[in-house]
Amino acid sequence: MTKNKKINLSAADSHNIKRNAKAPLSPIIVEKSVARVRQDVASWNTAIKMTGLGDNPKYYLIQQLYDEILLDALLLSQINNRTQKSLSIKSVIKNKAGDVDEEQTLLINNAPWVRELNEQILWSIYRKTSLIELSLVEDQLQIKSISRAHLDGKGNIYPDFTEDKKISYRELREYGTWILEFEQKDGLGLLNAAVPHVLFKRFAHSCWSELAEIYGIPPRVLKTNTTDPQAMRRGKAMMEDMGAAAWFIIDDSENFDFAQGVSTNGDVYKNLIDLCNSEMSMLINGAVIGQDTVNGNRSKEESSQVMLFTLIDADLRLLSQEWNTKVIPALIRIGVLKGEITHEFEQAEDLTQLWKMTTEALNHYDISPEWIKDKFGLEVEAKKAIAPLQQNNNTAPESFFV
To answer: Which residues contact 110 (CB under 8 A, 6 or more apart)?
Structure first.
C-alpha cells in the first residue's frame, strides 16, 4: 500500500476536483450538525426536487428524511426481517472447476467485515446507493461507509453537501479496488415510497394521542369568587391534589361549555395507521405478514411467507452478482482472496421434508449414520440385523390343542 496523502480542497481551481493519488475519501467529509425538524409532504417534495437538479443535484435532504422515517418501528422491523434472513445464509466460494474452496469459504464466513459489506449492498436497495472504502489496518481488512448525504447519484461526492465543490470518485485509480460502489440505477430506493406512509402514520398517532388526552382525562373546571384570594388559594390547592389532568378556575359569574364536535372513539385514526402499516409491509415484504389478527389465517400467512422468500432470493442473487462483479475482483487485487473463484450461497434445505424422505427410504436402502448425524444432528448407529424366524418341526413344542 502507498502512503495516504492529505487532500487540500482549498487549492482546487474549480468546483470539479479530480484526484488521482491514493488517498482515503472519508477524511475529506465535512461533518455537519443536523437539526431535527418536523417532516411533512412539502419537505418530501423539496427533497425530491433537490435530487433532480441538473448541475449539482443534492441528495442530503432525501437521505436525512430516510434517517427520520427509519425511526418508525414497523418499517425498521420489516426491513430487518427481510435483510437478516439474507445475511444468515452462508456463502460458498467455488474455484474454476466448480468445487468448493474450503479455505476461502471458511475465511469469508468467519470474517467480521463480510456482514458489514453485505449490509451495505442490501441498503442500496432501500437508500439508492452505498459507497464504501476499503483499507488494511495491521493486515486486517476494514470497511468505511461514506455518508450518503454527500453523494449525488452521478458518481460525485460533495465534501460539504451545502456547497457545490465535488469530487468525481469514479475517475480515481482506487475506484473498483479500494472504493466500491453499489447503486440502484432507477428511482431513489424503496424508502422513497415509504415516506408518505410514515408521515401520515405519525400524523394519525399525534391526533389519536390528543383525542385520548381529551376524552381519557377531560379538563376540570372550578367556579369560585376569583376576587377572593383565600378562595383562589383553596381552589388551586384542591385542583392540584385531584390529579394531573388539565384544570382551570373561572369566576362563579362566568360560564364555560365544551364545543360539540364529531363523536368518535379514534377509529378513523386507527384505520389510517393500519393502512399505512399494511402499505409499508407490502412495499418491503410483498405481503402483510403476522399483522392482520382479525382476518388472518394459516394459508394466508404461508402464501405471504412464499412471497417474502421470493424477495429474499432476489436479494441473494443481487449479493452474488455484486460479489462476482465488484467485490471478488477488488479483494483479489488487494490480496485478500486469490485464484479464479466465484461466490454463491448455500441452498437452504427443507429439513422437515428431507427427514420424511429419509425415513421412507430406510425401508429400502441403507443410509450412512454419519450423513444422518451431519444433516440432522442425531447420534445413530447402523441398523441391527434381525435374524428371520426358523421353524423346526423336530424341536417345536407340542401344540396346546394336540
So the answer is: none
Question: What is the torsional sign of CA 386, 390, 396, 397?
Answer: positive
**pLDDT tens column, 238-275:** 887 776 667 778 877 777 766 555 566 778 888 899 88
| Tally of CB atoms within 10 A around 329 | 15
- Which ranges constitute the DSSP H helices of 7-101? 41-51, 60-69, 73-87
Rounded CA-CA distance 91/107 in Å is 10
Name every residue whose Cβ is closer than 8 Å to that of residue 90 and which is 6 or more positions away in sequence.
109, 345, 346
What's residue 198's pLDDT?
A: 93
Q: Are strands 166-168 and 247-251 parallel, antiparallel or unpaired?
A: unpaired
Q: Which three cell numbers stand for residue 201?
A: 402514520
- Cβ atoms of 248 and 219 within 8 Å: the answer is yes
DSSP 8-state code for residue 267? H
Whole-angstrom distance, CA of residue 323 vs CA of residue 117 = 10
| Cα separations in angstroms, 284 against 183, 201, 291 | 18, 17, 14
Measuring CA to CA, how many Å separate 340 from each of 10, 175, 329?
A: 44, 21, 9
With contact defined as beta carbons under 8 Å apart, do 177 and 330 qualify?
A: yes
Q: Which residue has the higher pLDDT, 8 or 128?
A: 128
Helix (H, G, I), strand (E, B) or coil at 395: coil
3-class SS at 218? Answer: coil
pLDDT in tens, 126-150: 999 999 999 888 878 889 999 898 8
**299 CB contacts (<8 Å, ≥6 apart)?**
none
Q: What's the half-sphere exposure (Cβ side, CA atoms, 13 Å) at 243? A: 8
Q: Which three cell numbers stand for residue 3?
A: 502512503
- What residues contact residue 225 under an 8 Å CB cut-off, 6+ apart? 231, 251, 252
Distance CA 10, CA 294 (A): 63
- Tell me the longest C-alpha to C-alpha distance in the chain: 125
More confident residue, 147 or 211: 147
CA distances for 35 relative to 38, 61, 64, 71, 296, angstroms: 10, 12, 10, 15, 42
Alpha-carbon gap, residue 73 to 54, rounded angstroms? 36
Q: Which position has the grid cell 460479489?
A: 323
The neighbouring-strand residues paired with 133 are 144, 179
User: Starting at the edge strand that comes first in sequence, how are the strands of the sheet with 156-157 ordered?
Assistant: 16-17, 166-168, 156-157
Res 53 pLDDT > 70: yes
